[in-house]
Amino acid sequence: MTRLNLVKASFNPLLFKIYRKYLYLRFRDTEFFSQGEIIHEHSKKHLLFLANSFKKHSYYFNPGKQVHLKINNHKFFSPVGLASGFDKNCELLMPASYIFGLVTVGTILKNKNNGNFQDPKKGIKRLIVDHNNHSIINSQGYPSLGLDYCILKLKQFQNRNKGNARIILSFSGISSNNNEDNFLESCNEIIKTTHSYVDGFEDSRSSPNTEFNQKIQTRDFTKHIMNMLNSHAPSKIKISKISPYSIIQTNNNEFKNKIDLAKTFYDNGGDAIVVNNTQIRNTSNHKIIENFHRNKAGISGKPLFPYTLKLVKDIHEKIPPLTIIGCGGIFSGRDAWELIQNGASLIELYTGLTFKGFSLVREINNTIKIHLKNDSLQNYLDKYFLKSS
Predict the structure, then answer these.
(1) Which of 3, 168, 192, 386 is the most buried (most CB within 10 A)?
(2) How far apart are CA 241 and CA 234, in angstroms?
(3) CA nearest 142: which of 206, 193, 97?
(4) Average pLDDT, stretch 370-386?
(5) Most confident residue range from 62-76, 195-209, 300-314
(6) Quick one: DSSP state of residue 284?
(7) What tens digit of pLDDT does each residue of 280-338 get?
(8) Helices (H), the chain
(9) Helix (H, G, I), strand (E, B) or coil at 256
(10) How confident is the model over 346-370, as pLDDT tens digits?
C-alpha cells in the first residue's frame, strides 16, 4: 500500500477493517512466530514508515485543552494512552508520541529474552487472535531485546522532535534464573539506567504468563519495588499494573487482596494504578486452542471489560485519591466514558487498537468532550474525586 493509503487506513475505521482483513489473508504462521505476532511486527514497520505523516497529521489526535489533565503535578495532553506490550522494545516512540497522551513501552527486561517456546506450524502457539470474541489469548512470556537495546532507542528518541506524550517504561526483573534477589537486582539496574530518559515507570508483576510472577504478588514485594523507585526516580510518575478479578462475583479474599496491594502501593508513594492486566485463563478449556504451549494464558479484549469496570469501581471506592488508568476491553468512546464515570482518570488501549485502528483514539477523545459539554475533564474529575472522598 502507498503511504497515503496507509495513513487513510490508520484514520478511517472502515478502511482499517478492510486493511486488517487483508493482513490476516496475507500472513500465516511460521516455524517461529504465530500469525498475530507476524502481523503485529509488520504493522510496526508501517507505523515507523508513517512517523512523519503522524507528525504532519497530529492535529487529528490533538483533543484540545478541554481534556488536558494534571495529575500529581504531571501534565497529560490527552487522557488516552498506549498500554504496555504494544511497543515492547521502545521502537514506536516517535509516531506514538503524536497519537497518545501517554505511551507505556515494554515490558523491558535486563537481558534479551525470546519468551515462551512455540512452534506454530505444529500448532504449538503462545498467541492466538479470537476474531469472533474480539480478544487475544497470549502467553508470550516477556519477549524482549533487553535493556541495552531499549536504552539505545530511548536515547535516539530523546534527541528527535517528538509529540507531547508522557513516556512510561514498564519493567520486570524476570530472567532465566528467577528468585527474589535476582529479580530485585534486575529491576534496580533498569530503573537506575533509564530514569533520565522517561517520565515514569510501570511495575509489571501482574502478568499471568510466568509462574514466578504469581509468587511475588505480595505487599512486602511491592514495598521493595517502591523503595527502589523512590530512591532512584523520586520525581518520576510511579505506576503499578494490577491483575483483574478471576470472576465477576468475586470472593472477599480476592477483593481484599486487590485492595491491600493497591493501598500498599499508594501508601508507599504510588501515583497511579493500571486496571488491569490480562486475565488468567485455562487454555485447555478454550475452543479455538488445540495445542497452546502451556495450560495457562492471559486473555485481553472485549470479554475483559466487565472485570475492568468492576475493579475500577472497587478501587476508586476504597482508595479515592489513587489515580486509576482504565485498561482492558475498551473498544469504544462509550466504554472509556463509563470507566471515567466510575473512577478512572486516564485510559489505555492495546487490543482495541488491533481490531479498530487509531481512529479509536479520536473516537474516545470526542466522546469525552461530548459528555463534558462546556466543562473540562480536569474540572469534572476534581469535582468527582472531591465528592467521592
Answers:
(1) 168
(2) 19
(3) 206
(4) 88
(5) 300-314
(6) G
(7) 887 776 666 656 767 778 889 999 999 999 999 999 999 999 999 999 999 999 999 99
(8) 3-11, 13-26, 35-49, 51-56, 93-99, 147-158, 180-194, 211-215, 219-232, 252-267, 305-318, 333-341, 351-356, 359-372, 377-388
(9) helix
(10) 999 999 999 999 999 999 999 999 9
373 SS3 class:
coil
Whether the CB-CB separation of 341 and 366 falls below 8 Å is answered with no
For residue 3, the model assigns a pLDDT of: 54
Residue 127's DSSP bridge partners are 138
Tell me how crowded residue 373 is: count the other CB atoms within 10 A of its CB: 8
* Confidence bin at 389 (pLDDT 50/70/90): very low
348 forms beta bridges with 81, 327
- The DSSP code sequence of 95-157 is HHHHH-SEEEEEEE-SS-B--S--BGGGTEESEEEETTTTEEEE-----B--HHHHHHHHHHH
Q: Grid coordinates representing 204?
A: 509489571
Q: Which residues pair with 273 in a beta bridge?
A: 240, 324
pLDDT of residue 24: 93
Name the residue ranges covered by the structural domains of the chain: 3-388
What's the DSSP call for residue 177?
S
Matching CATH number, 3-388, of 3.20.20.70, 2.40.30.20, 3.40.50.300, 3.50.50.60: 3.20.20.70
In this structure, what C-alpha cell is assigned to residue 318? Answer: 476504597
Place of cell 530523546: 158
The residue behind cell 508513594 is: 269
Cell of 100: 497518545
Output the nine-digit C-alpha cell for 277: 492486566
